[in-house]
User: Fold this.
Amino acid sequence: MNVTKILAQFAVHPPTDFLTPGLLKSVKERFLDTVGIMVAGAESSASRILTQSVNDCGGVPDATIIGTSHRTSIVQAGFVNGASAHALEYDDLTPDITHMSSSMVPGCLAMAEKCNATGRQLVEAFALGFEVAGRVALGMKSLAMLDRGFHTPGIIGGLGVAVAASRLMGSDTSTMRMAMGLMASSGGGIRKNVGSAGKAFHIGNGVRAGLQAALLAAAGYKVDPDAIEGEAHGHGHQRFGLVETYAGSGNYSLDRMVLNLGEEFSLTRIPTMVRMHPCSTVNCVAIDGMIDLANEFDLTSNKVASVNVACHPRLLMIAPYDEPTDSYRAKFCPAYTMAAALVDRRVGLAQFEDERISDPEILALMRRIKIEARTDIPDDQGWCNGENNWCAVTVTMNLSDGTVIRRHFDQARGWPARPVSWQDLCSKYVECIEGSPTTENIESSMQMIAQLEDVTSVRDLIAHLRIAK
Assistant:
């Protein structure tokens, strides 16, 4: 099956009027959410180091490092902006695909700025790149990649960027296939680096690789035209296309990648999970559960004797840390995030500052929270739905007065059963940008994103996200 060819043709020649109102709404939500995070993330230590590094390397100033005064090559700007979009663990997640927006938004903005694209061209490229990469991810069974040790955004997100960037450059089908093939050889990311700044590096590196792949393909660089599928019965090198290499034999379906292609897009078919807490996605259900309990029973830390939390084993595979030794590991420490949720009744950016992660009250409560993996919970890829849910928790709280509270929680705010509104996303946007040097442009930039399809030049939006020298 010529999957690479079919997907490339689709990205170059999509159905007429594919950009439905529902798809447009979803794209604009992804931009509103991710752009704010990028501005806030530009202040992270990881992004500051990367910004200094790319400035030291130099480059033609074609694109902006969002939230700063710096401009550099689109490849390097995309690299830093991708890392910024993921550095705070605040970006969204599309179930069974990956953290796509933190790759796609920075990659699309960088190429759109260089090409002086319109807002509509930007939106279309984002939607098509997301759909192609999303279909590859769904066909590859992302759990298989995860279990083999790969951190998928640096691979799948980069593929989406390569497709979107090629679309913005006006590439034909043959060139699009070359970009996809180059990206297939460029991505990476190992799970050992999750819980460190390495995780943001994976995203940034995927954006860099996707943009580089599109540029090289447009310049005439040639690679294997069928790099996604490989050859099922091939000998030697020919067997190992992207799917066989990353997912492993028997862990993918090429048919699923192209079935009903061009009908309903993943962006409208699969509810994106917005993170309303800047930490590992798998912690968000327990956080909201603790906030709900604290509010309902007027709880303070001294009223809580102990807490037992039963969870799916995969929760502790994704968020495995027992101690919040730094801000990164705190985001992947379930007991810390639950303790902070009860004490502060919120878990936002402030809860991961150094002063807060060493707070004696929170740490004392954290050590009274016991997290136990349950092996009787079914393992299932539909992990944000109902009982087969990696993130679902059963909380048994023993109060100092002898009261026992037991509750089951399976949805976080921002998830399918608890969706957030455009206004909620605006509030998150303001939280992320307030205090940054771009604060004065909050309202104008939000308004431009709300009308993104009508923006004459994406450069006008980016000007609102850049600091004057």
Summary: The chain has a mean pLDDT of 93. Residues 383 and 389 are 4 Å apart (CA to CA). The beta strands are 63-64, 71-72, 304-311, 369-373, 393-399, 404-409. The longest strand covers residues 304-311.
